[in-house]
Write a structure and sequence with these properties.
By secondary structure, this protein is mainly β. The protein contains seven helices and 52 strands. It folds into three domains: about 120 residues, Phage tail protein beta-alpha-beta fold; about 120 residues, Beta Complex (Ferric Hydroxamate Uptake Protein, Chain A, domain 1); about 575 residues, TonB-dependent receptor, beta-barrel domain (Maltoporin, Chain A, Beta Barrel), CATH 2.40.170. Belongs to the TonB-dependent receptor family.
Length: about 850
């Protein structure tokens, strides 16, 4: 898109923002300190002018956590009632009554769960105020059960607040929404999130991109562009986060640089996975799913008080298995893409009223087959070399292949973390101490042919330790200046140690074995003699990453409507690595072994942030922000000779500009958010395939000189009727290299960034209808993604272009009491599409490429039960 068109888009976006302002009422800044609920309600009435009617016994012994947010009076009431078990309703335009929550059965998605009850169902009060009007339609009530959308509470800024009050672009999904959409993996979240792209070769090599920027993370010495946080703990090896979504409270997707509030800095965005926490009330749930490809899954959780209110616990598990859809016709084996079991346990100790200590343990074991690989696009040229055996027969389709061996993959995860939350009179202290281990073992037929060619074997052991401290302001505390300033300051320390042993093994029919046999026979180093031995080429990588950071952010209320946010971060990263190459043959071209390389580069960066938000009305807020981001450099530890392995790639930097709007319109029946952004990247890190001086292909990370991404995103939810809901999203993305000369030969300047489709959209329709004592819910969602490229050469290499495609998912559920039964189907139209590709050679129409295919049509049934 030209600059003129983008400018026009920004102008149009701004016009739409200001034209929407007339649809809502005023809001103001209210400060109510934590105190008994009865007294908090009296302060509420004085500040807002609302009349609150309730039986005194209803609030006896209840405490309110207070509020200091820049919100409406109605939202203030939500804050005051959080975690009290109470809800409220308007009986006329100025009168509110309270009642005990949870008395009514869950009827529709406007009914919020315990954690998302800020705008829950405003149902009829059992004890209405004397003389009050009960017909809200006649009284001019500002809200009713039919006019409110479920509002999600997020912690994107390290405090609980409505997603509509956060002046950054964030998409969020509650656990109930994930269940309704049958989303059980992080990669299923991407199609429903504007600007997010997820691809993977297998469970050890995910590829997550936000707004056109991401990382393949091939090297042990490389970083991801998008950070993954599980219960606020950073996950360094992204494969550790692909253990499935179970017992989830919420998933948040934050876009743009995140560093002034997070322990580990992320340049492209962050994904927060928040799991369900222990509660005093007993709760339990379980569900079982069966589907095609012999799919079977079981999930469950149980929690409650163990030692009164001082000790709470929760235990959850997840088991899933699916047979393969890619068949190895040589051995008759169907490659299994899914088999895993996970357990998560939590204990919450409350030794005093001001101290919470939470201990979490995660264990996960996965044993699927390695990779979802299809055929080499255009065939494998090495088979045409004289003396090589051609495949005995051609494959009938892209889901059937001839491998001489079956692939394997094993992954074991262990994690433990202790979180301490200590409230003082003038501030609060949070400490998060975490340790994790990831063990991976993988073997796959690299040539994907029935000949005894190349096999890639990888064993990796990775450990990670992190310590984070945060000091946060509290209402009425230090440096809050009459509660007009919220602040947070933190320090973070990380040590990550990935150790990887790779074996590029040449079989008897491989070029390595044939060259060795020719040399042993006194001939030239050429693949002309039959192989006599397997050639094992070992690459042993030992890396230690150490990161120390200090960060902070303060939000200042300049007026009752305007807030200024200032933040900054200092990061110092050091990476020490030892890279050793050995072989059972001293020298077999094109492998140049043995060698040892030792490196210890370090980098530091200071990254500021400033944003300004303005609340035009009760339900419309706009914001503008400037931020800088940083991603450290790394090693080229995927090389086959010492000279190339000594290369170090530089850090990546970004300057990010963003403008956005968040609105709740038409009596809160429509939530509409939009943002426009412009990112200027320097030294963008790009994965590419090079051929070494000896002729061996290797995947490396290099720095492109500059790149720009700019675009527009729209996301919304519309409550069309009491029973019909529409969720939708759209992303426009213009992501190009401003300067990129590949290997001093090819000019990729002006090319699209990989995995950066220009247009994408998603829509989901949900219809709910009470039937007898239960509820029927139908959901259909569709996501469409424009054509895009997997490599920077913009389609020069055969098979690295993905044409535009769409995915349709549907489900039909019946709920009655604690039971839920659903039938579902994903990729209903059985689209065949690539999740990613892997090229073995430099950009060229003759370079051979391996494709990895997405799941075909899957379907099944789920039976669930819950007690709350």
């Amino acid at each position: 898109m030209s600059g003129t068109r983008f400018t026009l888009t920004l102008v149009t976006f701004a016009c739409c923002t200001f034209s929407a302002i007339g649809f809502a009422a005023d809001r103001a800044r209210y400060v109510i300190h934590p105190q008994p609920l009865d007294s908090a309600l009296k302060v509420f009435a004085e500040k807002t002018g609302y009349q609150v009617v309730y039986p005194p016994k209803l609030v006896n012994a209840l405490e309110s956590t207070g509020s200091s947010h820049f919100i409406s009076g109605q939202q203030l009431m939500h804050d005051l009632l959080r975690d009290t078990g109470l809800t409220f309703e308007f009986v006329n335009d100025r009168t509110i009554t309270l009642r005990q929550g949870g008395a009514d059965a869950k009827i529709s998605r406007v009914n919020a769960s315990h954690e998302t009850s800020l705008t829950g169902p405003l149902l009829a009060q059992n004890e209405p105020a004397p003389g009050s009007q009960t017909d809200s339609s006649q009284s001019g009530s500002p809200a009713s059960s039919a006019s409110l959308m479920e509002e999600i509470t997020v912690t994107a800024r390290r405090k609980q607040e409505s997603i509509q009050d956060v002046p950054i672009t964030v998409s969020a999904f509650t656990g109930d929404q994930l269940k309704t959409a049958n989303i059980v993996n992080l990669d299923d979240v991407a199609p429903m999130t504007p600007g997010m792209y997820f691809g993977k070769q297998n469970e050890s090599r995910p590829q997550l991109y936000i707004r056109g920027v991401g990382s393949r993370q091939f090297d042990a010495g490389a970083e991801g562009s998008v950070g993954l946080f599980i219960d606020e703990v950073y996950v360094g090896r992204f494969s550790a986060g692909l253990s499935g979504l179970f017992d989830i409270e919420r998933v948040e997707v934050l876009k743009g640089p995140q560093g002034t509030l997070y322990g580990r800095n992320t340049i492209g965005g962050a994904i927060n996975i928040i799991t369900n926490q222990p509660t005093e009330e007993f709760s339990a749930n379980a569900e079982v799913s069966l589907g095609n490809y012999d799919y079977i899954a079981a999930q469950g959780a149980i929690g409650g008080a163990i030692g009164g209110s001082e000790v709470l616990g929760r235990l959850a598990f997840d088991y899933r298995e699916r047979d393969g859809y890619v068949t190895n016709l040589t051995t008759g084996t169907r490659h299994k893409p899914l088999e895993q079991f996970a357990v998560r346990g939590k204990l919450l100790f409350r030794p005093t009223d001001t101290l919470d200590i939470k201990l979490t343990v995660d264990v996960n074991q996965a044993d699927p087959d390695a990779g979802l690989q299809g055929e080499y696009v255009g065939g494998l040229p090495v088979l045409a070399t004289p003396g090589f055996l051609p495949p005995p027969e051609t494959t009938p389709d892209r889901f059937n292949e001839f491998y001489n061996t079956d692939s394997r993959f094993e992954r074991d995860l262990f994690g433990i973390n202790a979180r301490l939350d200590w409230s003082f009179d003038n501030f609060s202290l949070t400490s998060i101490t975490a340790y994790g281990e990831v063990d991976l073992s993988e073997a796959r037929d690299l040539d994907s042919t029935p000949v005894d060619g190349m096999e890639h074997i990888t064993d990796e052991e990775s450990s990670q330790f992190s310590q984070e401290f945060r000091l946060s302001s509290t209402p009425g505390g230090w440096l809050t200046f009459d509660d007009r300033v919220d602040w947070i300051f933190g320090a973070y320390y990380l040590v990550e140690k990935p150790d990887r042993l790779e074996n590029l093994r040449g079989g008897l029919d491989s070029i390595f074995s044939r060259i060795a046999a020719s040399i042993d026979a006194g001939g030239p180093p050429a693949p002309i003699a039959p192989g006599q031995m397997h050639i094992d080429n070992f690459l042993d990588v030992n890396v230690e990453t150490t990161s120390l950071a200090f960060f902070g952010q303060a939000s200042i209320d300049l007026s009752d409507r305007m807030s200024l946010t200032l933040g900054a971060r200092y990061t110092h990263d050091r990476k020490e690595g030892v890279y050793t190459g050995t072989s059972n043959r001293d020298f077999v071209p094109p492998i140049i072994l043995p060698f040892t390389v030792e490196l210890s580069p370090s980098w530091e960066s200071f990254d500021p942030k400033v944003s300004l938000d303005y609340a035009w009305t009760d339900d419309i807020m706009t914001y503008v922000s400037y931020s800088e981001g940083f991603k450290s450099g790394g090693f080229q530890f995927a090389k086959f000779n010492a000279e190339e392995a000594r290369e170090v790639f530089d850090p990546e930097d970004v300057v990010a500009y963003e403008i956005g709007m968040k609105s709740s319109l038409f009596n809160r029946r429509l939530r509409l958010n939009a943002s426009a952004f412009y990112y200027d990247y320097s030294d963008l890190q790009v994965a590419k395939t090079l051929v070494s001086d000896g002729g061996a292909p290797s995947i490396s990370t290099v720095n492109a000189a500059a790149a720009t991404t700019k675009g527009l995103e729209v996301e919304g939810s519309w409550m069309i009727t009491d029973s019909l809901f529409l969720d939708f999203g759209y992303a426009y993305l213009d992501a190009t290299f401003d300067e990129y000369i590949f290997d001093d030969e090819l000019d990729f300047t002006g090319n699209d960034l990989p995995r950066a489709p220009e247009h994408s959209f998603n829509a989901a329709v949900t219809f709910e209808q009470p039937v007898g004592a239960g509820l029927i819910r139908f959901r259909g969602d569709y996501s469409w993604i424009d054509d895009h490229f997997f490599e920077p050469d913009q389609g020069l290499t055969l098979g690295t272009t993905q044409e535009a495609f769409g995915l349709l998912n549907i489900s039909l559920a019946y709920e009655q009491g604690p039971w839920r039964v659903s039938a579902w189907a994903r990729n209903l139209t059985d689209e065949v599409y690539r999740t990613t590709t892997l090229s073995f050679g430099p950009p060229s129409p003759t370079t051979f490429t391996m494709e990895y295919l997405g799941l075909p049509r899957t379907y099944g049934v789920t039976i669930g039960w819950r007690y709350e």
